[in-house]
Amino acid sequence: MKILMTTMSLGIGGAETHIVELSKALVGRGIEVIVASNGGVFVAELDKAGIRHVSLPLHSKNPVSVLISLSGLRRLIKAERFDVVHAHARIPGFICGLLAKRMRFRFITTCHGVYHVTPYWKVISNWGVRALAVSCDIKQYLIENYNMNADNITLTINGIDTERFKNNSARSGSSSKHRIVYVSRIDRESAHVAFQLTEAAPEIAARYTDTEIIIAGSGTALDELRESVEKTNREIGKSVIKLPGAITDVSQLLSQGGIFLGVSRSALEAMAAGMPVILAGSQGYIGVFGPEKLKVALETNFCCRGCTESTTDFIKNDIISLFEEGDSIKAEMGAYNRKVVMKYFTVERMADDAQAVYESLTPYKYYKTGDAVISGYYGFGNTGDDSLLSVIIAGLRRNTPDIKITVLSKTPRKTERVYGIRAVNRFNPFAVINTLKHAKLLINGSGNLIQDVTSTRSLMYYIGIMKLAKRCGLPIMMYASGIGPLRGEKNRQAARDILNKTDVITLRENESVRELHSIGVTHENIKVTADPAFCIEAADEEWVDYIMNREGIGRTDGYFAVALRPWKDTADNYEAKLTEAILKIRRVGCGIPVFIPMQVSKDTAICRRIADVTGGKLISGLSASELVGLFRHMRFVIAMRLHAAIYAATAEVPFIGLAYDSKINAMAAEYNLSYNIDVRVFEAQTLVSMASEVYERRAELSVIIKKRTTHLREKALSDAGTAAGLIK
């Protein structure tokens, strides 16, 4: 594997150190790395590690600099043929994004901080086909400001070389017992803690005569800081504060002991060196770090984002309180700090994260058309159908890594961005026909596409696509589909005719087999597998915790999820009865309801109305993997959407079906469970009784669900192999 890292510069800073440490770790694994930047003090360290550096003005958005960087990177990428280009800042990301469109290479980014967003930056920023974020709040920033898909953002860390930064108790210390170290970039927008430390110095030095303060770093505010330091030293009467400038060997500086003031990577390096740490930065103040501060520190990636604003008094008081502690207490604090780094922030974990993302990207091969064309209800914002698409694509790529996939979507640009495949407008007949002409297989991508309950128009659309595919000579696969209900005689005949010409039909439940037979399909190549959604992996637990905190859901409070949809054919006063039932379920102690609109545009209204009355939470816009992760923390799930029930089963959580359609009944039958209510004859007490029973039996039911889900997941995985065989 061959990787190009691009960043603005390699001066002193957390992001720059991250890039150097990551590059060295990847090279140690046999991966070739080249770094391009405007240069800086860390270039020498790259040279020492045998990593080539290419100097380009990637630090500037000046048009001349951008053109020079574009030209230089184009030549470099063309000559070296990188597997992945990995950008680490917005300007390099913008330039690499422009080149990726023309040169067609795999391009990812790492976001190291929360930056000011303007309309200009929104337009030009490009975060690649995948992104890494060094904290949950940075991931949230990418989702909110750049509309990135959460599943395309991988959480990573600022990895620390724990061999290089070791506990300073085993090393020679400074002659001063009252030593304070601050390391950061000294820029106007981020160095106010350095100025506050300078302001606090006279009072600290008056109390402790051997006070020594080291402020290391360089940047746009260094001259201003130097003037302030010189003034303070004159006031004190001796050189208490020292400004060594940019230092590449921070480990040597930290090895001499003392206490550390700062944030982010520098604070983690000090913790690895066994120093007591005060977390203070331009984005907030946490104070003296210890076990009680771990949660908020992790949530903000040790940057204090959103915390109390730092002040001179905060800094002065915390420094004095630490100096007053005995040596044994400070040693215990340092030992705890190192344990935190060893558990959460190793270079090996950082390299694992990056390598996993690199390996998840299939080789980029330009193609005008595709091997497989996937048709389905895509681009409509339906979480269930979108999750099916992601699993189908992943399955096809597992079998054929460089497979060419084209999706028929309502929103093709968004589909391309989210899934890294080609997409065309499903309502553009010229684009659809041209795509089918040059393809090798049409996949009807799961879901209940062949049914007329939603509308006859929808059914005829999918049948029409299948007829076009046959005219183009393509084989057709119904991929883990649901069939029916089909009520109109003409609709049944149209479905029978095209399904009898379909090459392979795999179905997600036995009910669909019976529906096929009832309409007269005599196809021999029919197989029951399982819904692809059973293959969805839960989101990272750290990210799920962040979502729960963001939404005000405590782990110990006890919740149950409710996924509803509007439907015309229900019992009289259905919504009122449902509201009554959920209120009673809450009152009998089964938990607090969390309402999940699976298709935001359609489901939000009914979910919000009932949530308002029952005092429940409303959470929308989550991806399938996020929902699976969230459902793991629910006591049970009430599901009127099929995929809500499937996500619950995948999370090994009991579910109660609100059956508006035969597919909900089929899901309950798949697990041999009787917790299913027909919405046409719905009564509140029936749901209350079921919920109470499921709540009491939830541990037992989870074991049953886990066993059956494992079997269904194995069956679902087989469909991708069948599709790959048809293409070959």
Task: Give an overview of the whole structure.
The protein starts with a strand and ends with a helix. 47% of the residues lie in helices and 17% in strands. The chain has 728 residues and is an alpha/beta fold. It has four domains: 2-155, Rossmann fold (3-Layer(aba) Sandwich); 168-344, Glycogen Phosphorylase B (Rossmann fold, 3-Layer(aba) Sandwich), CATH 3.40.50.2000; 372-528, Glycogen Phosphorylase B (Rossmann fold), CATH 3.40.50; 541-712, 3-Layer(aba) Sandwich (Rossmann fold). The chain contains 28 helices and 26 strands. Helix 3 packs across helix 4 (90-103), helix 7 (192-207) packs across helix 12 and helix 22 (574-587) packs across helix 23 (600-614). The mean pLDDT is 91. It is globular and about 100 Å long. The strands form four sheets. A seven-stranded parallel beta sheet has the order 3-2-1-4-5-6-7, sandwiched between helices. It has a seven-stranded parallel beta sheet with strand order 16-15-14-17-18-19-20, with helices on both faces.
